[in-house]
User: Fold Wzz/FepE/Etk N-terminal domain-containing protein from Sphingobium olei.
Amino acid sequence: MIKDQTYPHEPGAGLVFAHRIRAKITRHRWFMLFVVLPSLLATVYYSFIASDIYVSEARFVIKSPSRQQSQTSSFANLIQTTGLSEGQQQTHEVIDYLRSRDALADLSRRIDVKARFMASEIDPLSRFPSPLRENSFENLHKYFNKMVDVHLDHDTSNAVMTVKAFKPYDAYILNEYLLQLSERLVNRLNGRANRQAIVEAEKRVAIAEDRVRAARINFGKYRNSSELLDPQQQAKGVLEISSGLEAQRVALLAQIETTSRITPSNPSLPAMRQQVAAITAQIAAQNLQVVGSNSGIASKLSGYEANAVEQEFATQMLTTASASLERARADAQRQQFYLERIVQPDKPDQATLPARLKQILTVLGVSLCLYLVGWMLVVGILEHAPED
Assistant:
């Protein structure tokens, strides 16, 4: 009689093996849930589902034509070097623009940005709109900022722009159009600054012209009221007359002295003495025209000089303002700032993102850390729990 034999591969052994696997899974269910399952999903997603991402990079800097710098003190140079240069300020303005909604709106007028990120061949987690997100411009802007990164490289002071897309040409054309929009922005900023400089210069010229006109009118009124055309020439003429009269007076006095000594009873002496007195009175009258009275040239000289100085200063102010206006117009004829492309946007021939192995290991590491933190927290709670 043959006895029954039980082999390892019989159904009874299989049930035991399945029971043991189920028991291990139940015992390590939290590890399977928080570590194994996320890592497995990440492996499946990044290995078979995640779409390839192509990256196009460009570098640029904002420059200005070389200008002759004025002589400044070392302290002023120190202050200037501690801040941002004009080119760096312009670069920051361009970077802020590329991150703004205006840049996305301007770019959308040239190319259908939304269609580039809504293609059906893109995996659902990477395409726009993201799951549980609405198809709105606000969400598109947030998505766009994730795909376009612009920052300043502090080592080289160059702006670095990287554009991610799901096709090589899309990454290239988006990068190129963004650079063109940046160049247009720089030109617009130049035009705005030039127009503002010209308007300010024209205002200063108008103010200077009004001041010159008022100074000339006031000067003319003062000349008419004071009967003073040119004090130097008028004083010079009066002094020449006085000098001539003084010479006549001296000659007559000498003649009177000689005649009195030779012929004291000469009948012409009284007439000569009267002539000397008359000349002396004329000399005094001529001197009063220059000094010694409120109507003299000297008393009117201060007002004349004040009006002359005002007219001269107003004329110099007008000359300076006119020169500033000409410089502003000359600056408007040339580009003050321009965008210099250091690295042209490239057309990638190989996908560099996503870094599949790196992403899988990252998910594994994060899941493991969270599991360990939770495990230690639970162990600590159980150790300090009161025993019943």
Summary: Confidence is low (pLDDT under 50) at residues 1-9, 67-84. The longest helix spans residues 168-226. The longest strand covers residues 54-63. The beta strands are 54-63, 148-153, 158-165, 338-343.
